[in-house]
């Protein structure tokens, strides 16, 4: 299901604040919200997205801060699926004006 990574896709994701981590095997981004309720609402939307795509992030939450790391565990590397998820997570933020 994963396609080859393109430089364009990588640039789009990195430009939106995602960082390469784990020697390029994952991407990560921290999101800051106004309060816990807003952070939890965002996490709920991401959880539904993850279930839909059967691609679950590594993440943490501390009050108003949510950190998400995306990698494809089956391949042990960053794949197109991770980049697509990152772009969709960014769209959740944009859609909700967060």
Q: Mind explaining what this structure looks like?
A:
The protein is an alpha+beta fold. It has one domain (7-95): 2-Layer Sandwich (Gyrase A, domain 2), CATH 3.30.1360. The chain has helices at 7-15, 36-53, 80-95, and strands spanning 19-21, 26-32, 58-62, 65-70. It has a 4-stranded antiparallel sheet with strand order 1-2-4-3, with helices on one face. A hairpin with a 2-residue loop joins β3 and β4 (65-70). α1 (7-15) runs parallel beside α3 (80-95) and α2 packs antiparallel against α3 (80-95). The longest helix has 18 residues, at 36-53.
Key features of this structure:
single chain; 98 residues; alpha+beta; Gyrase A, domain 2; four-stranded antiparallel beta sheet; globular
Tell me which CATH architecture applies here. Answer: 2-Layer Sandwich
Low-confidence parts: none
* Count of individual beta strands: 4
- Report the principal-axis shape: globular
Please report which band the strand proportion falls in: under 5%, 5-15%, 15-25%, 25-35%, 35-45% or over 45%: 15-25%
Number of domains: 1
Radius of gyration: 13 Å
CATH topology: Gyrase A, domain 2
Instruction: Give the neighbour order of strands across the main sheet.
Output: 1-2-4-3
Blueprint of the fold:
Elements: H1 7-15, E1 19-21, E2 26-32, H2 36-53, E3 58-62, E4 65-70, H3 80-95
Antiparallel strand pairs: 1-2, 2-4, 3-4
Helix pairs in contact: 1-3, 2-3
């Amino acid at each position: 299901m994963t396609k080859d990574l393109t430089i364009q896709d990588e640039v789009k994701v990195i430009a939106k604040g995602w960082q390469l981590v784990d020697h390029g095997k994952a991407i990560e981004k921290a999101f800051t919200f106004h309060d816990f309720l807003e952070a939890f609402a965002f996490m709920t939307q991401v959880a539904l997205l993850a279930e839909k795509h059967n691609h679950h992030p590594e993440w943490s939450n501390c009050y108003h801060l949510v950190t998400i790391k995306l990698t494809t565990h089956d391949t042990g590397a960053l794949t197109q699926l991770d980049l697509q998820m990152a772009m969709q997570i960014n769209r959740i933020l944009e859609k909700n004006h967060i």
